[in-house]
Amino acid sequence: MTSLGGTDLVDWNLAVSTATRITRPGPEVSRDEARAIVAELRDHASASEAHVREFTGLGSGAVDTPVLVVDRLGWVRANVAGFRAVLQPLMARMRERRSGLPGGAALTMVGSKVTGVEVGMLLSFLSSRVLGQYETFAPASPSLPAGGGPGAAGAGRLLLVAPNIVHVERELDVHPHDFRLWVALHEETHRTQFTAVPWLRDHLESEIQAFLGEADVDPATLLERFRQAAQSMTGRGQEGQEEAAGPAGEGDGGLGIVDLVQTPRQREILDRLTAVMSLLEGHADFVMDGVGPAVVPSVAEIREKFTRRRQTGAGRLDRALRRLLGMDAKLRQYRDGERFVRQVVEQAGMTGFNKVWTSPNTLPSKEEISRPEQWVARVKPTAA
């Protein structure tokens, strides 16, 4: 495995090894069952591509990104590599700043190991909950177990986390074949978004880097915030707080990226990021529900049970993501984004909605996500 440690403010190697020690493998299945599940998920991803592209009218794009069926540690390693790539400019700037301080190198080494452990715990926690992910910022050559392999640099790749899909389908007591296809439809929509809209990845990366570039935070302070975010997501140091919080996470404490917002420019960037993530998640839900009835016989039962689980079973995770990201709760992103897509499609048809992918200028603002009619008036999409 390529070294991920060095002088970074997070010891990425230690994060991976920590997650490796504490991550549970998932539900028990025989070797033959595991092979069959992996094969079925790959087949569903392939079938979903045609369903999604036909429903959305989005083209295939120029890049054929890979589909990887991974275990929980495969997901951890992929995300460590992705985080490191995205955060590298910020880490380099902070490392340079700390190098001029007395004892800065020693402080960096100690701090990076402490943070590495906490990040490993955070990723282990998430690795048992994520069903799938389009890894937008996949680096060129990370090491992946469970059949993983590198994708093209910057091309992204689709990850389906087999143990978690099996766990949830058993927990919900739904038809395995239908549920696996249903999940694949959602995640394939994300892959379609990025392969059919070639400027989208670079736009997101530039927004993230612009936000991080505006940050002027003492390295020790940022490390402490990172550790507190990790602790809040794993529940360490937060005993009793979850019960005290309101149903929508009201009263949540903790520190996150929102605490790095120091200028109006950063707030503007954060609002745009919130809007585009709401659009992407809502679009995936809309497509999944639009395609589902035709190809997933038990889609109504799956949606009902999954929505109930999402609302009642993911409270701590969603509150932690709000702390860490400083954005709207992910549930709100799904809900508001899906409503935006649905209302625009009702007014302008799918062709009119697809004007949203024309350029960064046609992406909805945070306010337009809540008021789709404003986006329609501004962009003036017309259905073919």
Q: What's the rounded overall pLDDT mean? A: 78
The largest beta-sheet arranges its strands as 1-3-2
The unreliable regions are 1-6, 141-153, 236-255, 325-329
β-sheet strand percentage: under 5%
Looking at the chains present, what oligomeric state does this protein adopt? Answer: single chain
Q: Tell me the structural class.
A: mainly alpha
Largest sheet: 3 strands, mixed
Task: Give the terminus-to-terminus CA distance.
Answer: 51 Å
Radius of gyration: 21 Å
Helix percentage:
55-70%
List the total number of helices. 15
Strand runs, count:
3
Along the chain, the helix and strand elements come as HHEHHEEHHHHHHHHHHH
Descriptive terms for the model:
single chain, 384 residues, mainly alpha, disordered N terminus, Zinicin_2, CHP03883_F420-assoc, metalloprotease
Describe the protein in words:
Strands 1-3-2 form a three-stranded mixed beta sheet, sandwiched between helices. The chain is mainly alpha-helical and 384 residues long. 65% of the residues lie in helices and 3% in strands. The chain is built from 15 helices and three strands. One of its GO terms (molecular function) is metallopeptidase activity.
